[in-house]
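yo

u said u wanted the structure for the complex thing, so here. seqs first:
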Amino acid sequence: MATQKDVADRAGVSFITVSRVVNHLGNVKPETRARVEEAIRELRYYPNRQAQALNQGFTRTLGLVTPRMFDRPLFDNFYVMSLLSGVEMRGRELGWDVLISTDYDRRGAFDFLRVWHQRKVDGLIFVGLGEIPPQQLDEIASKGIPVVVLSDRIASPAVSWIDTRSAEAVADAIDRLVALGHREFAFLGVTADTDYNPNFRDRQRAAREILAAKGLGLEVISAPAMFDAGEETPKLYLAGSRKATAIISGNDSVALGFMAGLARSGLECPRDYSIVGFDAEPSGRIHRPTLASYAQPLVAMGQAAVTTLLDRLGGAREKVERTFPLEFVPGGSLGPVPRR
Amino acid sequence: MATQKDVADRAGVSFITVSRVVNHLGNVKPETRARVEEAIRELRYYPNRQAQALNQGFTRTLGLVTPRMFDRPLFDNFYVMSLLSGVEMRGRELGWDVLISTDYDRRGAFDFLRVWHQRKVDGLIFVGLGEIPPQQLDEIASKGIPVVVLSDRIASPAVSWIDTRSAEAVADAIDRLVALGHREFAFLGVTADTDYNPNFRDRQRAAREILAAKGLGLEVISAPAMFDAGEETPKLYLAGSRKATAIISGNDSVALGFMAGLARSGLECPRDYSIVGFDAEPSGRIHRPTLASYAQPLVAMGQAAVTTLLDRLGGAREKVERTFPLEFVPGGSLGPVPRR
DNA sequence: CTGAAAGCGCTAACAC
DNA sequence: GTGTTAGCGCTTTCAG
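structre next:
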């Protein structure tokens, strides 16, 4: 592990000259520079970022924080994975590494800010956090911790956020379904995730409001957990007194589980009901019928989070609120209201 | 950002006492300890890991290195995502954070070891690297860089690895297909990825050898890239003179693309051909027919990589070679050989 | 143009 | 039991 001192010895200069060469600053005679650069190459010297960080106060690392990223490692990660892709891509472009910080504890016990306090990262991107405890929000504000939240709108003036315009998409979905003759709507959610997952919460709320404005109601079918969507939500649907013909699902994976469950009871889509999801994940393209859905520019959102965070680290103080549109992805899961 | 000194001032002791309390070592009078602990809580003091790392020489962070993790951010990440899940879970359990390090450059230009050289991490887990340039292997060996490779078998005595027993699964698949009467086999690969992706390479090689031992041949159908599998491999298959009835696909996502492509030409599975994949990803369960596949214990492999790496960091010097079995996941994509 | 000194926050070794 | 000194590798004054 070569240090600046080793390089300096080899090049016959003092270590401070090495520092200048490495950081491209100060006046260094070209030939001195050349000698130093050669020594750097020979010794495969890399600046020790721990030491740089200790000195300069920043690490060029950003933290991606989520309390539940991997609690279903094999299933519902299309969403977070795509965001992570965007974060990682833009970070790499700009020379920043990404540290992943997760936790499996109950919400309250999860210290979202740990890696920042430890000075492992300079700023934080929160994903899928649901509610941030007020105490931690206060701390973010009082200490000026650079935080950008993905996929939720945070009231605190200290926290910037990036979100999608879910309500627009929900309105679009309802228009399409109404045009097909549907009048009985249900929202497919997950109990544990609905108060946890801001996307589900926003979509459900938007559906209720938009339908109410049209004089229509919204039944809510919530499985106890995302994982049970294929088992429980179909049962709940079948047990209901009146059966909605138009289903808006919190996301695609819940929708696909639901469709599979109903198929086992002989209910087919779009013959017996229509359904639309969110995320436009690849599984929905493979399913028969294909699942109508709303694609979110997740990679672009991850990239925007990095840009926003680095602006903040660069000195920008204003809160940033940025929304992205969703795009309808047609599918065979939408059809005319069944006669009955 | 409170430091040990701040805590010390508040508790009326010297900073070294704070250090002792934080690290639970040395003799500290219980009441002194209590006062210090209170000051720590009041000031929300966290040890600065940069400084600790500089001093102790380690960071309690490990690097997950892949040169191509996100170059198809939206599609073929079930595999890497699951490995990452295992790495992250086990790391968290043991108090280690995970730094993601990727690159989009051509292989040769990618400096796999950068984050280690920079002392941002203590050890590295490589995923999906294909070939590691000999020069970097030499450096790993000569500098004793702690590296564990996931999903490939590295000859270098300096590098431990974790892999699956692909050949066993290929043999099992061939047995099943032969039992169904199939005699004409093809391997579905990806040109760009075959010499890149050790899994594809191993599976193709195993298929060739096992079939040769039975006196059977293997046609190879390789799309130019993973992304083109749904466009190009069906064309290549249809253009071939004799059509294999038994297809072994490098992984599930290529298989699903292939099936969709052939369906457009009126060829149906399992009526016209049988196909088996690898990874057992959720999309294959959703597809009709369901895709027979081989599940890999990816999360467990990621966990094993962390354990192996930490053993190494703890002083273990022996190279570790560990293999995991694959498990057959039945599917409707296997059927008797078509009469023709 | 180059070097010497100080200090980032922390821990290890050695006093008292 | 507690404090002092030195130093991890680097950058930032300030000198020469």
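Residues 13-17, 20, 26-29, 32, 51, 53-57, 119 of chain A lie near DNA strand C (CB under 10 Å from a C1'). Chain A touches chain B through 53 residues (CB under 8 Å).
cya
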